[in-house]
Automatic annotation (TrEMBL), chains A, B:
Claim: Transcription is one of the keywords in the record: yes
Organism from which the protein derives: Glutamicibacter uratoxydans
One GO molecular-function entry: DNA-binding transcription factor activity
InterPro entries in the record: HTH_MarR-typ, MarR/SlyA-like, Tscrpt_reg_MarR-type_CS, WH-like_DNA-bd_sf, WH_DNA-bd_sf
SMART domains, A to Z: HTH_MARR
Keywords on record: DNA-binding, Transcription, Transcription regulation
The protein, known as: Putative transcriptional regulator, MarR family protein
Gene Ontology biological process terms from the UniProt entry: response to stress
Domain HTH marR-type: 25-161
Gene3D superfamilies: Winged helix-like DNA-binding domain superfamily/Winged helix DNA-binding domain
């Protein structure tokens, strides 16, 4: 990206929305567009930090979830539910993680319809290092004041609840 | 996605972060993860609304930007700056829009290093209809109260400013 713009282009779009008679939709348009832009900034930063670990943010989330599970393993369908991604997205992530030896798919002991996803020793090691880097380089240093992060999380929790993410 | 989860999985991850001694990073981790999840919800909703118009949200943004420009045209490099996407992403969007006759690339009258992007008559028609649907189905009905949308936009503006999005 070249030098910063003199004015926020999303604020400009919001002004255009109002000028064209869509004032009732302007705040919502601006908020939604800003969320997408912000997600893209964070995703680029996270992926850059995780690249030396051979991970993307999506694959990191799979490892982190398994790392928190009591047995270091979870059924595929439960993992996809907790990560709130479609089964096909999870399958893609797991294919890559399995190819690099960070996770294993193993038979579920009692449910033949699903398989267990298990963190390998190497997966635990990579997770440990990757999480340390994310904590130090992204989460401790996000560019967002702590009070803003908390308010944001509350607003997004209300929204995600309204969209059926959780009860 | 199956039935809603009994608890917010991002709040659970936040608890895990605190339990493992990363309390200083927990709020930031939760906010960033929630932003990515929320962006994904909105992107899916926007893309579903735009599909009947043959558009994605990224391609809609290109049309909307051109629609607001005084001459209905903009240099490619300026468009990529205002949309805050890399030149290659814009090229992909424009390739698709040009293939369906919604925009044209035309020579820049004075600058041989860039080309102008111009909205076609069909592009204007599609933009008009697509924007109407987005306003009615997404922006008027986002699931986020107006006060939340405004606070969110302010927080994200501060953050985007800190990341060099605009001066």
């Amino acid at each position: 990206m070249p030098s910063p713009l003199p004015r926020d282009p999303i604020a400009q779009a919001r002004d255009q929305w109002i000028a064209h008679g869509w004032g009732a939709e302007a705040d919502s348009m601006a908020a939604i567009t800003a969320i997408m832009r912000t997600a893209s900034i964070f995703l680029q930063r996270a992926d850059a930090i995780l690249k030396p670990h051979g991970l993307t943010f999506a694959r990191f989330e799979v490892l982190a979830l398994l790392g928190f599970s009591k047995r270091g393993s979870l059924p595929m369908n439960h993992a996809s539910q907790l990560l709130q991604v479609h089964a096909t997205s999870l399958t893609n992530s797991v294919d890559r993680l399995e190819a690099t030896g960070l996770v294993r798919r193993i038979p579920h002991p009692t449910d033949g319809r699903t398989r267990l996803l298990e963190l390998s020793g190497e997966g635990k090691r990579v997770l440990f290092n990757a999480r340390q880097d994310l904590n130090e380089q992204l989460f401790s240093n996000s560019g967002m004041p702590e009070a803003d992060a908390r308010t944001l999380f509350q607003i997004l929790s209300r929204f995600r609840h309204s969209q059926g993410d959780f009860l």
